[in-house]
Write a structure and sequence with these properties.
The complex is a heterodimer of chains A (161) and B (731). Chain A is an alpha+beta fold. Chain A has a single domain (25-160), classed as Immunoglobulin-like (Sandwich), CATH 2.60.40. Helix content of chain A is 19%, strand content 39%. The longest helix of chain A is centred in the first third of the chain and has 21 residues, at 2-22. Chain A is elongated, with a radius of gyration of 19 Å. Chain B has 20 helices and 26 strands. Chain B has five domains: 2-41 and 109-205 and 287-324, no CATH class; 48-96 and 207-278, no CATH class; 330-458, Rossmann fold (3-Layer(aba) Sandwich); 494-591, Beta Barrel (Elongation Factor Tu (Ef-tu), domain 3), CATH 2.40.30.10; 594-731, Nucleotide-binding domain of ferredoxin-NADP reductase (FNR) module (Rossmann fold). Chain B is an alpha/beta fold. In chain B, a hairpin with a 2-residue loop joins strand 19 (549-551) and strand 20. Helix content of chain B is 41%, strand content 20%. In chain B, helix 1 packs across helix 4 (125-154), helix 5 packs antiparallel against helix 7 and helix 17 packs parallel to helix 19 (695-713). The chains are: A alpha+beta (161), B alpha/beta (731).
């Protein structure tokens, strides 16, 4: 009986251990995007995780909620079309020139310092599209610094949440 | 002339943009309900307008240490961005004092988003926006030209809100609603235009961001957020958004965006690190957006919806008016040079044209060659025998647009042969200058050597069928060509004849001379001096009209017997006690004036008839001065009794008689010239001059009076005619 119980408890413990192991360890970061003073409508920005080969791996956050404009973020849209994911929980409002947007994004701990990059892709209606407005290597160091953008984004800052 | 420039541009602008305006109005009405639906869900905290940043910011930061942003929207709902207890993104409407979540922002309605996109860009991005911007600008021009048109119609800015004369449903409400909704529509057009221009960077709306000098940031002295000066002095209602410091680091600061500027505030010391004022254009853009969308005020949003609905009505009624006006254009079957009858029309909005056209068609139907055209097309008409001028009056006694050149053309193109003319004026007593242009045209024609009056000038008040008929009958009688008023008026109205009993007849059996007939009405009949009696001597359509004087409650007619005269012969043969059938025609324009302080009556021959009645009916003893002309003293005898009685009772103050074939051989116009000062005084004192008799006498008297007016009162005779101070009823 006690043996049976032990097995039972062990099984459950193992099951739990297995489950915890299968759910990847994640860290939350506050990510601030400060926009430059461009003229025009709100920018659609998508934050993606890029693997070491330069391919899209995961969508981290989308700024802009109207799906009709997603095709303006050309490269990301290809990935999104190929591998549709539920992004409603990580979607926020678009940002206009001069404004700032602070959002919480989740990054798997295992991806940090593992050759991954974070890419900020931006597009504005009837204006230039930036495949890579900001691109930063996903390292502990870069997550603490400020990175300047090349398009509509003036700079990006992270801080651990 | 200017009226037509404005009207044409008003119309041209409307035609060029009505499709888009229809679309924009419909979508605009729908969009006006967006703020209305938003306002009904209230996330607005109580006492919001009093809350300062010093009260709100520390409270919110305490409740949400992670708060990154606060925005105050047009509904004055406070929305924050922060993370909740689980570290998840939180976007919510909160109470600014407690941080309590009041609601979650709903996704913007897809329906409203689609309509909005259609409204501002027709789904065509930049091109669409440019088209819409131009349409907004056109609407602005339409509104402006509309304002000018109303001012001109109402004759003066001060009379802008005075009563509007009603012609038709479309016209009346186009003007009435135009006056009311003109301001909101102008605001819609202006703000819409401004927003489009701002969108295309015509104005400097570039906001500079605050620039902070990080080398000079101090971390002392530390101040509590509740004590920071700018927080205490700034109300949440003035704020557009606040960016909270990204971290606790002293280099991270508050960015407060107000309506007109952006301020960076040190989070520890409360120092103002930097302040940037927005360009004025940003403030105007926001104001335009508030005004154009009604997002800040539900009532204004509803006003905008009504104004947009009005635009739809204007499009409908404007085109209804235009189509009606166009329909009045008529073609001519014959060339002007081959026609006996020339109809000249002065019409501003086409309603007068309808009558003229009907007359024209009547003539054509009878095989007559008739030509109809505008008064401005007056020229030499080589075969013309009859000229019919049918005209309205516009503005302050001005000529209608299509008659403005008539006066100068008349001087330039005298007709080669004698032509009979008749003037019919259309107008409304609602305006003080009733039919003034018609009177002017009539006076101008009477001065032409070639022009012979066929019938006296007639006027039609408010398109009265009776008054039109009066002219049609008079003209038919004189020209020998029947104009049937009934088809013209499209009114089937059978004349009801009344029986009259002859109570006396002074006919002597002589072959010529004048005589009086008195008639008793069988039933009570509404009749007064100056009205006309229509008789049908042959019991057919032929009608003869006689002026009535009501003496001792009897209808008295004064008649000159003509050789083979249809009417006069018939009356001459009437025996006392006999019954005859006739009808009374109300002739209001020649009734004894109700309010005049003093009245001069001028007549010749049998034209004295209505005046005898008026004197007899003058119960109030209004000072009356009779000037009458006769051939010989014997002619006066028949009237002597009534005149003597009038003088004795004070109903007649002065009697002046001119005899043309005896004694001094004077005409009545000579007496008028003699009493020039008296006539001028009567007119200046708002008295009335009434003229009844032959057209020749009328012409002479009017010439004399015109000279008197010019010399002594400084106003033309048509001024007094249009103010009902000179009344004529001649034949």
């Amino acid at each position: 009986m006690s043996r049976l119980l032990k097995i039972f408890i062990l099984t459950i413990a193992l099951a739990f251990a297995g489950r915890t192991a299968s759910v990847a360890q994640t860290n939350k970061y506050k990510c601030m995007i400060q926009m430059s003073n461009y003229m025009g409508d709100g920018a659609y920005i998508v934050i993606s995780l890029i693997d070491s080969k330069g391919a899209y791996e995961k969508t981290l956050y989308v700024l802009g909620s109207d799906k009709k404009w997603y095709n303006s973020l050309k490269e990301w849209n290809k990935f999104y079309k190929a591998k549709p994911a539920n992004i409603s929980a990580i979607t926020g409002a678009s940002v206009t020139g001069g404004d700032r947007s602070v959002n919480v994004i989740e990054i798997e701990t295992s991806k940090i310092d593992a050759g991954y990059k974070i890419r900020f892709e931006s597009a504005v209606e009837d204006k230039k599209y930036n495949v890579s407005d900001v691109e930063i290597p996903l390292t502990t160091e870069s997550l603490g610094a400020k990175t300047d953008g090349t398009g509509y984004i003036r700079y990006v800052r992270f801080s651990a949440n | 002339m200017t009226i037509s420039v404005w009207r044409y541009s008003h119309l041209a602008l409307a035609v060029s943009s009505f499709l888009l305006l229809t679309l924009l109005s419909v979508t605009g009405i729908i969009l006006a309900f967006e703020p209305v639906t938003q306002k009904t869900q209230s996330y607005r905290a109580d006492g919001f307008s009093q809350v300062t940043l010093a009260q709100s910011l520390p409270a919110l930061r305490k409740a949400y240490p992670d708060i990154s942003e606060l925005t105050v929207d047009a509904n004055q709902f406070v929305k924050i961005k922060a993370t909740d207890a689980d570290g998840k993104n939180l976007n919510a409407y909160v109470n600014p004092l407690t941080g309590k979540v009041l609601g979650l922002p709903k996704k913007e309605s897809e329906f409203f988003e689609t309509v909005k996109s259609l409204h501002r860009s027709l789904f065509m991005h930049e091109t669409g926006r440019a088209v819409i911007g131009i349409t907004a600008f056109l609407l602005m021009l339409i509104t402006t030209s509309g304002i000018v048109l109303i001012v001109q119609r109402q004759r003066g800015v001060k009379r802008f809100f005075k009563r509007i004369v009603r012609d038709s449903f479309a016209q009346y409400y186009h003007v009435v609603l135009g006056r009311i909704s003109l301001i909101p529509i102008l605001i819609i057009a202006l703000s819409g235009t401004y927003l489009s221009l701002a969108r295309f960077n015509f104005f400097d709306t570039k906001k500079e961001s605050v620039k902070v000098d990080f080398d000079n940031i101090k971390s002392t002295p530390e101040r509590k957020p509740t004590e920071i000066e700018i927080f205490k002095n700034t109300k949440l209602s003035e704020v557009e958004s606040i960016e909270f410091p990204f971290s606790e680091d002293v280099e991270d600061y508050y960015t407060i965006k107000l309506n007109d500027r952006e301020v960076a505030v040190n989070q520890i010391t409360g120092d103002i690190l930097s302040e940037v004022k927005y360009p004025k254009a940003v403030v105007y853009s926001n104001l335009s957006l508030d005004l154009h969308t009604g997002r800040t005020n539900m009532i204004w949003a509803l006003v905008l919806a009504v104004a947009a609905a009005n635009i739809l009505f204007f499009i409908y009624s404007g085109f209804a008016m235009t189509i009606k006006r166009r329909a009045n254009r008529v073609g001519n079957k014959f060339k002007a040079d081959e026609c006996r009858f020339i109809i000249l029309v002065g019409s501003e909005n086409g309603s007068t044209y309808r009558f003229a056209k009907a007359v024209h068609q009547q003539l054509l139907k009878q095989g007559q060659k008739s030509f109809i055209t505008e008064l401005n097309n007056y020229a030499v008409f080589s075969k013309a025998e009859h000229l019919i001028v049918i005209t309205a009056t516009y503005g302050i006694g001005d000529a209608p647009t299509n008659a403005s050149k008539f006066a100068s053309l008349l001087k330039k193109h005298p007709q080669m042969q004698p032509v009979h003319y008749s003037v019919l004026g259309f107008g409304s007593h609602a305006y003080p200058d009733f039919c003034q242009f018609a009177f002017e045209a009539n006076n101008l024609l009477s001065q032409q050597a070639w022009a012979k009056p066929l019938v006296d000038i007639h006027t039609v008040n408010d398109r009265s069928p009776q008054e039109f008929e009066l002219w049609a009958e008079a003209w038919s009688q004189q020209s020998g060509i029947m104009i049937d008023a009934l088809p013209v008026l499209k009114i089937v109205e059978k004349h009801k004849l009344t029986a009259f009993k002859v109570s006396s007849n002074t006919a002597s059996g002589a072959a010529e001379g004048t005589f009086s007939v008195r008639l008793k009405t069988k039933r009570r009949q509404k009749v007064t001096s100056g009205d006309l009696l229509a008789i049908y001597p042959a019991n057919d359509h032929r009608e003869r009209l006689y002026s009535i004087g009501v003496v001792n409650n009897e209808v008295q007619l004064s008649v000159r017997l003509h050789e083979n005269g249809l009417g006069s012969g018939f009356l001459n043969r009437l025996a006392v006690g006999e019954y005859m059938r006739a009808r009374i025609v109300q002739n209001e324009h020649f009734h004894f004036p109700a309010k005049s302080p003093e009245v001069v009556m001028i007549s010749n021959g049998t034209g004295i008839a209505p005046f005898l009645g008026m004197i007899s009916q003058n119960q109030r003893n209004v000072p009356c001065h009779l000037y009458c002309g006769f051939r010989e003293s014997a002619s006066v005898n028949g009237y002597q009794a009534v005149l003597d009685e009038g003088k004795a009772s004070g109903k007649l103050m002065h009697l002046n008689i001119a005899l043309s074939r005896e004694g001094q051989k004077q005409y009545v116009s000579d007496l008028i010239a003699r009493d020039a000062d008296f006539m001028a005084n009567i007119l200046s004192a708002k008295g009335t001059i009434m003229i009844c008799g032959s057209l020749a006498m009328q012409k002479d008297v009017m010439d004399v009076l015109d000279g008197i007016c010019e010399a002594k009162t400084g106003k033309g005779i048509s001024f007094y005619q249009s103010h009902n101070q000179i009344l004529t009823d001649c034949y």
